[in-house]
Recover the amino acids of this structure.
């Protein structure tokens, strides 16, 4: 790759210190190493920045961008670093701009049911603050205990409750963005509909920090449902479990979640958490959540869903109604990714998404791939969204050379099937980032890809804003 | 305005005839006059095209765009012509490209709960086809008896059910678009989440045909609720009625609709339809719809909402539960715009949108404007979305000179208040088009406006795709 960027000179570094204060400028190798990677498990994806800045407001970020623009220095926005596609990695060095110190709730507006917060707030903290008011933010990435609001928006994070509530973007009413040129722009507001010009807000949602840096957001809140139940439903085979998913959705019931966990994912998570779930003869499980305001309705829907599962091969239907039991199950589900990583740090966590009706076609193909390439591919994910986290893992005894040969071939074949045969997409929520950019080019028709490039060039003609992500 | 475009020569006309067939090429002045305006009531907004084309597929449209691009000829996409901002008016002549002959349903996919249809299908027809399957498209523009799907998407049409169901864009999973350069691009699909590259689909939604022409779309369907009730609630004053709106929404109940009609709007519609509603001493009415799958729930919510209205000054709460009674009320609501137009064809139908909590502040300001400028401003609209159709009308005895002086001043003052004081937007659903473009520039901060311009230039560098709309 041709590095067209300029280094950060002593003089520029001083200017940056003047903007954010010396305490918010990190250059010490040991400290900036943390900012050289995200949660994507591949050494090649790591890259050291020259400097990490932790500004405390949008004005500082605007000043930083003006300097970066003047001197053609790459700037990589960073949230919690919990991303899974290498989006926060400073591929060309330069500046990492972390929003970690911008973590305030600015306003809770109960008349309009909105909260306005800075980009660096942890998702779960936001909901902790809202709980006592009976309100909640319906975005629910699985990393909610660590991920930042800004990152959620930049990646349009999905997660475990999208079947009913949709993904993060649906709740973003307004945002403040700093452009690559250092302009502070406020988009949207507290309004629920708006056709006053192009919908730039929607464009920034999911643009992975390549068009600008999100500094704060106004979020639509919902009244917290006061009834929720989870069904944990084991099946003898993964195929039986997944085949029930479109059948549930056709009932007209909208569960909050329909999560899928195959046996090996579940086992690894249980081991990792020192948890036990009944796994005798189990090939896979569905975790189905229902929530609402009316206990009788939830009860009725639970029975309907449970019966449907039983009719289609469920071995058992376990019901978790109290918070502790529910959290136990969800904790297993949330910790699968981490558990697989502990088992085998060399792996490729995938994020394919297909039309709901085509989910049953994904698992047999994964089995074929698994056999063909001789690697295990545990699979779990948001089955109710057609979004599966197939994870190809390098077994400890496989050589790194072999793995490096296999991984791209396996992914190419997987993506070609998902996009070409099932009309799906290669990422439902983790994003393209660094990890999938060459694959995105391979599966995207030229006409669409050209529009991607035009868009990036229009917003960031110098290519200084998170360069090397999404596009090759 | 400087016309940078080339005329359609005999030779070019022949090429267009070769593409779509002579029967789909209209040049006869009498016939093309229909395509010189939309439903925006202002003579100055009309402009004759040189030719109207009615292609029958996307390939023909792509070929047309290639010719237009080669010769720098402006192309104005057109749906049903039911728009209210002059979006379909061929301001610079050239080609009007009407999708009226592309009106087929291509597929109803019950496994994925989607319908795929061409851009020229009438919204209501779509739902008629879906009815027997217990499904519906939740987009509900008030012009649903005439408006086309393509136009709904291009304008991101809102309408009467957005409180619960959101606006058109929420349901568009996939679309086929022809770019200004004549490329056919397919965006999205049947998937419900997707972060594989920039969200171009969302960008086209609401872009008013200025970035490309939508030729078909895949729509997410919902199961049709089998219970619905409407409450018609008269209040002595408009201010009392509107003040109840945020109170209802804070209950945690999500009505399908909360529509507002002031006395003069209601009277005009009743006269127009030869309908009678009880209007003795009534200053305004709310029309509140609840729908769902459970009769008891709807009943309970209806009582809650009714009681709340009564506690806050409602004179009466009328309940309409059967289809005929419900349609009578809704027909009044849907026909207000047409009725006001019949009363006074010279008028300005506005579409401002504010945060829900600020709705009560809009009416007193409209009263002030009404007094200051000496014009009536009947007001109605989607109060539950904060979206009000204030309509300034020229009384028959006012001179045209006076009106022409008053109208822009009144609108400027209204928009400045809505945007500057209430943090609202100048259009919630009708769009900017031709009518509001100078006002949009006036109220949009430079940073955001520059991004609008960059975006348009990136997609349509020749400015041939619906030129003269949104941007000045």
């Amino acid at each position: 790759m041709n590095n067209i960027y300029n280094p950060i000179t002593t003089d520029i570094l001083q200017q940056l210190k003047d903007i954010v204060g010396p305490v918010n400028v990190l250059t010490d190798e040991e400290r900036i190493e943390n900012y050289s990677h995200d949660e994507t498990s591949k050494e090649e994806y790591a890259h050291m920045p020259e400097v990490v800045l932790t500004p405390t407001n949008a004005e500082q970020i605007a000043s930083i961008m003006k300097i970066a623009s003047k001197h053609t220095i790459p700037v990589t926005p960073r949230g919690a670093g919990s991303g899974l596609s290498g989006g926060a990695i400073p591929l060309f060095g330069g500046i990492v701009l972390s929003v970690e110190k911008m973590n305030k709730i600015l306003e809770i507006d109960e008349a309009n049911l909105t909260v306005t917060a800075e980009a660096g707030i942890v998702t779960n903290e936001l909901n902790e603050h809202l709980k006592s008011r009976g309100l909640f933010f319906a975005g629910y990435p699985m990393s909610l205990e660590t991920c930042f609001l800004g990152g959620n928006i930049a990646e349009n994070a999905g997660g475990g409750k999208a079947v009913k509530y949709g993904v993060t973007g649906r709740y973003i009413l307004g945002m403040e963005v700093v452009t690559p040129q250092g302009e502070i722009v406020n988009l949207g507001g507290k309004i629920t509909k708006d056709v006053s010009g192009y919908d730039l807000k929607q464009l920034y949602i999911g643009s992975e920090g390549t068009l600008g840096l999100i500094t704060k957001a106004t979020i639509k809140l919902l009244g917290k449902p006061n009834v929720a139940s989870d069904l944990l439903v084991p099946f003898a085979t993964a195929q039986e479990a997944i085949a029930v998913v479109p059948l549930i959705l056709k009932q007209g019931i909208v569960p909050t979640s329909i999560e899928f966990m195959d046996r090996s994912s579940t086992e690894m998570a249980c081991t990792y958490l020192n948890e036990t779930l009944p796994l005798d003869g189990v090939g896979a499980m569905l975790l189905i959540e229902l929530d609402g305001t009316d206990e009788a309705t939830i009860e009725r829907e639970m029975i309907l869903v449970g019966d449907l599962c039983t009719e289609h091969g469920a071995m058992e239907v376990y019901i978790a109604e109290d918070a502790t039991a529910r959290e136990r199950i969800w904790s297993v589900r949330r910790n699968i990714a981490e558990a697989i990583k502990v088992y085998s740090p060399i792996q490729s966590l995938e994020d394919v998404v297909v039309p709901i009706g085509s989910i049953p076609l994904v698992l047999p193909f994964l089995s074929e791939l698994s056999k063909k390439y001789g690697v295990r591919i545990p699979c779990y994910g948001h089955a109710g969204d057609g979004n599966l986290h197939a994870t190809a893992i390098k077994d400890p005894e496989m050589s790194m050379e072999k793995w490096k040969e296999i991984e791209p071939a396996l992914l190419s074949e997987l993506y070609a099937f998902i996009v070409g045969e099932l009309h799906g997409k290669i990422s439902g929520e983790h994003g393209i980032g660094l990890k999938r950019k060459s694959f995105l080019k391979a599966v995207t028709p030229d006409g669409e890809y050209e529009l991607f490039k035009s868009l990036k060039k229009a917003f960031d003609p110098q290519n200084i804003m998170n360069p090397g992500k999404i596009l090759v």
